[in-house]
Predict the structure.
Amino acid sequence: MSLDDAIETVLQKVLQRIRPTEEERAFVEGLMRELEGIARDTIESLDLDVKPYFVGSLAKDTYLAGDHDVDLFLAFPLDTPLEELRERGLELGRAIAERLDSHEVAYAEHPYVRATYRGVKVDLVPCYDVKSWRDVRTAVDRSILHTKWVLDNLRGKNDEVRLLKRFLKGINAYGSEIYVRGFSGYLAEILVIRYGSFLKVLESADFMLRQKVIDPGNWLKREHEVAMKTVGREAEADRPLIVIDPVDPRRNVAANLSWEKYGIFYFKSTQLLENPSEEFFFPMNRKIGNYLSELRRKGTHLVALLFEAPELVDDVLLPQLERSARGFERALSREGFNVLGWNVGRKSGKAFIMLEVDRRERERVTIKPGPEFFTERGRDFYLKNERVWLVGKRLFAEKNVMDDIVEVISELLEKNQVATGKSIRENIRNAEITLDYVPKELEDEAYLFLSREKWNLKG
């Protein structure tokens, strides 16, 4: 079998797993019709001038089998004051959600309602009814324009997008959230539209990195000054890619994409093209070893700080944990310890910061004052110490002291000498600090961190 045939065989097998069945499509379409009917009835009952729009992968038919989250946007007229949009939008969202199965209020730039209906998550999000980028007032407004642009340009490449999304999920590079910093679904759709297919996107991994600027909306000609300002800003920020939003020249769709996640995509694309396998899309569970054996192999030590995870969403908590880990890295470096790597996360209600360090103790010298040299105690002091000198009539000596890293960290926290995340500062001060030990529920996480299998490009 040729390499091309092998790749095609793999892709067809993957598509069978990720392409929605006719029954699933019928369920989704029926669900959306019901939700639209409920929304329109509710809008009418409240006498509001609001239009409901479905956005996201369901509306674009780029969703993966089994992934049915609904994004229903409630678009208010442009002349609505922002405070009124927030207030009436939340009121409308709650009124719609009362007719669904369950709901709660969530918060982003402004409050919105998260509901469930027939086992499916439904986000009810107020926004402005924008017709162009010049109308955009809030971060969510563009979603209506994004959906329209993709529907106008996708031209039957829906399954190509599905393959790219599943590939990015398989290599852990999917999601633009700040704690992921990967490829958004919209970015995946743009790349397929721009390059023509899933395989052509992978083949372009090196080219697009060197090309740097991707302009599917042709803004560099249509709105040159605005688009160049975006390019300049994003180039200065050293982004791996600058993808000018085809519906808004002021925005880089890839602004949240990190170098690490692009690097994973870069290497995995080549690997798939050279050795096609379903594992790129559906990775097997990584083989887990013993973290204590890993410590013995490397001759390093593991410090873990464990504390109750505050009630924060991952978008807020994980960046604060990362900031704190970097704070410990800098503080311990000043104290003479070398931090070889760090890892953060949340598990079983606990937040954790793991630090791999080069040693568990440090030796330092202190000055030890002694008695007057002509006394009996002075003679004992002189005999017991290696390096002794006089200042006036008093003896002094150097003393070597061994400091345990746990004690050093405790002292640094007590003296407020570690830069930590603002919302978790108090939690960290009260953290349990362990050395070369983690609770059972974190043993696998510790192994994946210490072995670097968590990030291994060749794994």
Remarks:
- The longest strand covers residues 361-372.
- The mean pLDDT is 93.
- The chain has three domains: 20-151, 154-280, 288-459.
- The chain has 18 helices and 14 strands.
